Amino acid sequence: MSIFFFERNSEKNIINNLRLMIQKSLKGLELLKYYMKTRDKKILAEIIKIEEEGDEITKTIRINLEEAFLPNMRRELSRSAELLDETLDSLKHAAMLYELLKTDFDEYLNNEITIILKITVEMFKYLEEVLNIIENGGTLDPTIKEIKDREKFIDDIYQNRIYKYLINLEVKSFWEGKIICDFIDNVVNISDYIEDVADELHIIYLHIK
């Protein structure tokens, strides 16, 4: 694999900023888990701050892209940054929706969300590995498969376990039900964004292979 251009500072900055977005998403996931246990307002404020920092990193990536990479790779890298920005948006929205709930999730929903968040953390770590392979060389297909397998597992949890459970869940009002559904959608959507980023990076890998 020809990876000579990853030795230039402009290209390395783009890859490092994408890696930084992943690290901020991982931190955001840990904070969301903690916020669901504590409802600590300081944690919520920290999640919102991370999302704002993600916006700035995304802007930096877009500006630097003009000076880095071959033109036919810019679209994929710009899209990757946008999708990672979406993961931080989803984390923020999930936390803000949870703030509106007057009661915590019951044990079943809490366990299912915990499983989804754990798998999502694994997906982000595999996404970091994708960046490492693109930058340093290696075989990408097994790592992409790990990401896709986990995304399917989360879809299965959502469609065959959570969704069926929600149908029979007693709620006090329309808005309580909507907030619960919107929270879960935001958490589940993160795995879709990760898979989409992996697909964009896979295209770049094929360009330089």
Automatic annotation (TrEMBL):
Pfam families: PhoU_div (PF01865)
Domain of life of the source: Archaea
InterPro entries attached to this UniProt entry: DUF47 (IPR002727), PhoU-like_sf (IPR038078), Put_Phosphate_transp_reg (IPR018445)
Family, similarity comment: Belongs to the UPF0111 family.
NCBIfam families per record: TIGR00153 family protein
Protein name: Phosphate transport regulator
